[in-house]
Specification:
homodimer; 118 residues; alpha+beta; 3 strands; elongated; DNA-binding; Metalloregulator ArsR/SmtB family transcription factor (chains A, B); ArsR_HTH (chains A, B)
Chain lengths: 118, 118
DNA sequence: CGCAGACATCGACGAGCGTCAATATCGACA
DNA sequence: TGTCGATATTGACGCTCGTCGATGTCTGCG
């Protein structure tokens, strides 16, 4: 589904007029959906493992052992991350290769700084 | 309890050697605790409302109406945010004034960029 | 074709979360 | 002292989440 986080980021990320108006309810909902996908230690480790892997991509078999969970559980977490727009899935032959979406984390960080700073 | 997020941030936030090694399990746990506090639309709105309020602080009575929830529920969410180290509580007389912790959100954003970028 | 392996889906279970009404606590003020 | 008002705490409810074992689906290979 890839929640878009289309919150209007000000022209420049640095030194915006700080918090002018509070976040709207729909924007808060969208941000919360993305953060909920991130707010799990296993998913953070999976994201990190994929990012640190050779070529920036990894298949499920590379990730099952490091996190110490069953294969269905790892597949479930990866699906959550893909649905949140944080990971991409590329099935080549028998293997499914996951890679981090380039700007996704930056967007989250930018919204946090822009909308909630003081 | 104020989870510290003491993950060692590289010397400069910009252009670090990207993801060298995956996040450790304890670090992932600490980050997840903070993100879990953020991953709720009501708490995001409360954080935003406090940040946007005059003087950077607000009491419970200022926040109950905008979010449309009961007073105990708002108090509960504020306690979660304080326990996560994202808000401070200052009780003056009958009122309790909440304010955003200056660097907290920046830390979260920095860890996201540093540990999970590619 | 038939088998083996990689991954996804399903169903179920226990734990945790968000919300509320009811109640408790505490400070201000008459 | 006694009452009022602002906030915190408690107990309960329904719902969501993380995890697993079992099973389904699809690909490559003999």
């Amino acid at each position: 589904m890839a929640t878009a986080l289309h919150t209007t980021v000000e022209a420049q990320a640095c030194c915006a007029p700080l918090v002018a108006a509070p976040i709207s309810a729909p924007d808060a909902d969208a941000l919360a959906r993305t953060l909920k996908a991130l707010a799990d230690p296993t998913r953070l480790r999976l994201l990190s493992l994929v990012a640190a892997h050779d070529g920036g991509e990894a298949c499920v078999c590379d990730l099952t052992d490091p996190v110490g969970l069953s294969q269905p559980t790892v597949s479930h977490h990866l699906k959550v991350l893909v649905d949140a727009g944080l990971l991409t899935r590329d099935k080549r032959g028998v293997w499914a290769y996951y890679a981090v979406v380039p700007g996704a984390l930056d967007s989250v960080a930018a919204v946090l700084d822009t909308q909630l700073r003081r």
